[in-house]
Amino acid sequence: MSAFDDLFGRHVLTAMARQFALADVIGERDWSVDLGAGAVTFGDDLRFPVQLLGSESHGDNTWLWAWANEASNLPPALLHLCAWMRDYGRNAGVGELTDRTFPLTRADGHRLALLASGLTGRPYYRGPYAGGALFFHLEGVPPTALPPERALTVISQTISAFPFDHRTGVTAFFEQQGWPFSGGVAHHPGGATINVAFDDQGRISQLNGSLPPRG
Description:
Elements: H1 3-26, E1 31-34, E2 39-42, E3 46-57, E4 62-65, H2 80-92, E5 101-103, H3 109-120, E6 124-129, E7 132-138, H4 148-161, H5 166-177, E8 181-182, E9 185-187, E10 193-198, E11 204-210
Antiparallel strand pairs: 1-2, 2-3, 3-4, 3-7, 4-5, 6-7, 8-9, 9-10, 10-11
């Protein structure tokens, strides 16, 4: 397993939970990004500052980090997050975070943005355009508590969407949420429990939960 894959597996579930929460906020609103103002607008009522991550090119199926996109003359103030990711990659020995560009088969925008979300605590948005897509992170999105029912959905959908070490990922997820996890049982502060069983290869073989009775 590569350093990137290991790091991704430890952060993908919390990052996906953050994406679910963002979807609750923005719904089906149209989006528009103003790089000069450093902000994205959703519909007529939501506006958030952004930090650029990078872009996918569908012409040659490659990723380009925003800090390496010199031809676009991107505002330096919008490159703090991607520069931080580059420096983190240098210290941790993660080539996907330091190489300027590479094929999407190595790591695509969603995986890179999810890792950045897990490391920095910001949700991301994929803005498609003709020939590719821009990935950026949003600042100032109100944090929301993760209900146990949502945690079950996050786990089940994420293991279907991305390859990662399930045991490592689930253990890290509950630790990041502050939910005690031992013997395959996670305990939510509100009294709910989530049960996770793994097969001999560390893959999730059973996932269910129980909620306390409403008083």
